[in-house]
Design a protein that fits this description.
This protein has 245 residues and is mainly α. The protein has 7 helices and no strands.
Length: 245
Amino acid sequence: MTVYLLKSIIALFFLAGAFSAAVSMLALMGRTEKKANPERWRRFHRLAGYLFAVFLLALSAMGISIFVRAGDSLPLRAVIHAFIGLFILAVFFLKWLIARFYRQFLRMMPALGLTVFVLALVMFSMAGYFFLRAAASAPLPGEVSSAALPPPLPTRAPADGGIADRGALLYAKLCASCHYADRAEGKQGPGLKGLFSRSSLPYSGKPATEENIRRQLVHPARSMPSFSRLSAQELADLMAYLKTL
């Protein structure tokens, strides 16, 4: 199990805890009619809050670990993801302080609770969007098409069997949304212009050899998704195209 799959599983429980806490809070504080067994709802809300806190801390620890390893190579989406996470931590901590020590502000609790839930839903939706996009076989609306890429080499098979123009199509589907092909500047991930002429790879820091680039695609370092589903021929085609950049 990869760290990203584990993070996704924890995120599901994280969202479930936020949803359960929000529903139980609304049942306790948002209804005008007589509440059915309010003490049971309070216990359920407290339990959901504790579970949410545990999963929030687990995700925060994993996120900090990824940030430390990433250094200056973080994509923009990861930075936005982190800021939303910080807001959730801050609002949740404020909610806990009011519940424990500043009960004169209890009237703020519903608004803070709903804010935590909405932020958790936004963060989970962002992560789910990029996870599904990485798994998709076709580019989503707004992604760079192959027409925007530099022209590949003529159709021919080099020694490793890869064909550059087929690799260009793969690049448009899988890579162009996060990496520029015509410059070294970062997009969501580092630009790949002149990748094979560099001394080291942007994420892993390993020498920029074909073997290490293939390894990065299949067993990526840091926040890049894995493309282990690619066939040997597809990897060869992609390598042939990257050598033209």
